[in-house]
Amino acid sequence: MTDSPLRRSLGWYRLPILVVALVTSLLFYVPFLVVVATSWTETSYIIFPPDGFSLQSYSGVLNDWEWMDAFKVSLRVAGLGTVISVALGTLGALALTRLRSRTARSWVRTLFIVPMAIPPVAYAVGLYSVSLRAEALQDNLALLVLGEALLAVPYVFVMVSSGLSQADPALRPVASTLGAAWPMVIWRVDLPMIVGHMLAGAVFAFAVIFDEVVLSVFLTPIGVKTLPLQMLTASQEELSPQLTAASTLVSMLAVALLGGYSLFSNRRAARARRLSRKAATA
Amino acid sequence: MSIALSIKDVHVTLGQFEVLRGVSLDAEPGTFVTLLGASGSGKTTLLNVIAGLQQLDSGHVLFDGANVERRPPRKRRVGVVFQSYALFPHMSVGENVAFPLRAARRPAAERRRVVQEMLDLVDLGGMIDRAPASLSGGQRQRVALARALASDPAILLLDEPMAALDKQLRERMQVEIKRIQQQVGITTVAVTHDQAEAMTMSDLVAIMHEGQLVQVDSPENLYRRPVDEYVASFLGEANLFPADRHGPLPVDSGAPATGTAVVRPEDLVVLDAGQLGDRWHVRGVVRLLSFQGSRFRLEVTTPAGRSVVCSLPPHTDAGALLPGSEVTLGCADPDRVHVIHPAAVGEQLKLAA
Amino acid sequence: MTMEQALAAPATTRRRRPMADGAAAERRWLLWPPLVFFLLTVAGPVVALVQQALSGEGNAFAESLRMEVFVDSVWRTLLLAAVVTVATVVVGTCYAFAIAVGPVWVKALLMGGLLISLWTSVMVRTIGWMLLELPTGALFWVLELLHLRSEPIDFYQSTAAMYPAMIAVMLPFAVLPVLASVIGFDREQLKAATVFGAGPLLTLGAVVLPAIRQAMISGGVLVFVMSLGFYVTPLLLGGPANMTMSGIINGQLNTANRADVGAAMSLLLVGGTVAIYLVADRLFKVSERWG
């Protein structure tokens, strides 16, 4: 691929572009590396460069019920929220393919993307006012889960729609002329084609919900904290290496899970490509 | 002004795959050369080599005797019509055609004049302000051609120019492109996998196979005197029979063969028992007779399972050739049988009467 | 409306046109669950906000707009969002180009940075910036090492401190659409530009940028709109002097105890943001690029 047309077209102008991009990538790497580095200090306060090397703050986090509880709450909220947002986002993406009117399609599309634009603080205040009016929604995580699910729906919708747009549009009419009713078409034709994209959407939605902090500020019952909220609280107090150790742990977990997932899906895609190439040449 | 093109022993490797394996080709100024081959034969790579879009491992490309392989594409004065036409979607037809002139920093007045001239040449004089998306496939191709010719190139390159057109339009555009090429008098290299297209447009057809040029010749010579079995069956339909120095051997005889006889379907006729004599012939059973407008196409299977195709004139009595009936085929004119002899390639042998 | 018609249609016509009614039923079952969910989770909070905004004695909306801190924060937020948008689109476009044309090691490095940013939480990244910018943080350590500075830097919780962090947080949203567009760009058009004599500048300006403009705008609109709701990063890095609208709203509720004013401000923020998105969406077809 040394002869890429874009590379040739850019000529020497690609040097400044590369320099800008590489400098920019520092914005991504440096803060993360600082977080990781400060977590192994032997001191009980945060210092950079770290003083010595120990894993004491890691064991501190893992044995601290406050951090572990927050982690469990986040898992629960993100899990429930992901299920809801995947279901709704997928329904929306499927509905989009079945609408004929151009205006209807464009409104549905906008509707499913607009939650990305909702400012979380204002939305959290709104949900909070709802909870003031409905006692059943106080002292539990229902509103938090629903709100997070709404914020994550666009990501699922985008992923699944892109999967559906790659599918052959003739398959669905074919299935229905062969006598399949619409639920069977969805179950047998659409879902198998987009299951990978649904999974990707689910992973993305989980990550978004797991990381979201603002809604938890307003909506968690007293004494309950999600992990990002616990981090926010900790970052406004005396900075301790436990904070960066927890940050490192959760980031490593995310990198391991998401990296593992994308390796897996890449390999699957590569295998599918190989198979289709084989089929084409055979 | 057009140039003589010369390609000498060009090698190109893409990844681990040797796409061009020693290609040489010479074309006089003003010649229309077509590179004909199956997909993956390296013909588009060769076109890219001429355009300067592909680096060479070794070999030379000469324009009028001058080495150009180190020259970047923009300094080679080539005009290219791409397979997808590659019209810039956000520019009007006129802006597309003006692009090469804009790149060469020509004054606006000259640009306007040349654009009009080029669009008139391709019969699109009134379309200057249209968007490419609003044009039909044939019109887009004409715009691409006008753009390729706008900067007065020394050589015109056409990459599968007809691939995106339907059959009728394709035939019209083949003639049209040939007309424009002759009017401009420009040396032209086209790439195609369509043999009819190659035959219609070209002065010279170069057959490519697995990164090499198998035969470069006029369309007629290629058809009448192919150098090997590949060329014979690639260009038109061909019946291949085992042959020795004297011509085709009795079919299904198992006699030792030293070469291959190429018999074109239109050179085969149906023989009566009386005409047989000691002429060379093929016996078989009719499998299929189909009417194709100007000809009948007859498919015959010999007792040993060899399939023979025969093209008969339209006044043939179809009733006598029903599937399942026995038939004997022979050569109308033994002189038209070409024998490929591996030892003496291209040697023309006469069929003993 | 088609659904109601379908429901109201007599059974006989329904049987005669099974395909059409099947399609209506299909659409109904696919669209209604999400629509009901949106109605509950969006309309519910909005109604509650309106009620709460009207619960105070005076007109909470008018009061918000008279409050100097709020009006200031509106301008500050708009400016911040605009700066972040322009910066992320420009830098993000370079970043996407570099991934497309760079040597393999550059590509891997850049993709790695992008993925770290996508996969780690905003909280973690913001904490990283905090540690970097603290008076004796990592930045100070580097400067000291290079003998460029010996006293602690007075950078943390200033306007300049929050911009790089916010650009880093938002950058992936600007890079991704442009990257998809650059990678999917028609190679023959680039070859055509080269063959017809265009240099890098003409190719970029006349061929490439017009084609990826749409992607740049989509990324930019999204970054702008999301930046309007920024809360955590400005709170931790910008400090009290750089309160965004979100910060002010939080203050009204938790410090000033003016729930009605907070609700009014929330409505203004949500309404404004969504309105901006809808206008941009109609103008530039942003959703179509994403969905």
UniProtKB/TrEMBL annotation, chain A:
Record carries keyword Oxidoreductase: no
InterPro entries, per the entry: MetI-like, MetI-like_sf
Family to which the UniProt record says this protein belongs: Belongs to the binding-protein-dependent transport system permease family.
CDD domains given in the database record: TM_PBP2
Cellular location(s): Cell inner membrane; Cell membrane
Keyword field: Cell inner membrane, Cell membrane, Membrane, Transmembrane, Transmembrane helix, Transport
Organism: Micromonospora haikouensis
Principal location: membrane
Topological category with respect to the lipid bilayer: Multi-pass membrane protein
GO cellular component, one term: plasma membrane
A matching Pfam family: BPD_transp_1
Superkingdom in the source lineage: Bacteria
Name of the featured protein: Putative spermidine/putrescine transport system permease protein
Segments crossing the lipid bilayer: 12-40, 73-96, 108-129, 141-164, 198-223, 243-264
Domain ABC transmembrane type-1 positions: 71-262
Biological process according to GO: transmembrane transport
UniProtKB/TrEMBL annotation, chain B:
Cellular component aspect of the GO annotation: ATP-binding cassette (ABC) transporter complex
Ranges for domain ABC transporter: 5-235
Keywords for this protein: ATP-binding, Nucleotide-binding, Transport
Domain of life of the organism encoding this protein: Bacteria
Family matches, as Pfam families: ABC_tran, TOBE_2
Molecular function GO terms recorded: ABC-type quaternary ammonium compound transporting activity; ATP binding; ATP hydrolysis activity
EC class: translocase
EC number: 7.6.2.9
Protein name: ABC-type quaternary amine transporter
Annotated source species: Micromonospora haikouensis
Lineage: Bacteria, Bacillati, Actinomycetota, Actinomycetes, Micromonosporales
TrEMBL record, chain C:
Pfam families, per the entry: BPD_transp_1
Domain of life: Bacteria
Keyword Transport among UniProt keywords: yes
ABC transmembrane type-1 domain sequence ranges: 74-280
GO CC, one annotated term: plasma membrane
Localization, UniProt: Cell membrane
Stretches that traverse the bilayer: 29-54, 74-97, 104-121, 127-148, 160-180, 192-212, 219-241, 261-280
CDD domains reported in the protein's UniProt record: TM_PBP2 (cd06261)
UniProt keyword annotations, A-Z: Cell membrane, Membrane, Transmembrane, Transmembrane helix, Transport
InterPro entries reported in the protein's UniProt record: MetI-like, MetI-like_sf
Example of a GO biological process term: transmembrane transport
Annotated membrane topology: Multi-pass membrane protein
Recorded family membership: Belongs to the binding-protein-dependent transport system permease family. CysTW subfamily.
PANTHER family found in the cross-reference section: ABC TRANSPORTER PERMEASE PROTEIN (PTHR42929:SF5), INNER MEMBRANE ABC TRANSPORTER PERMEASE PROTEIN YDCU-RELATED-RELATED (PTHR42929)
Protein name, per record: Putative spermidine/putrescine transport system permease protein
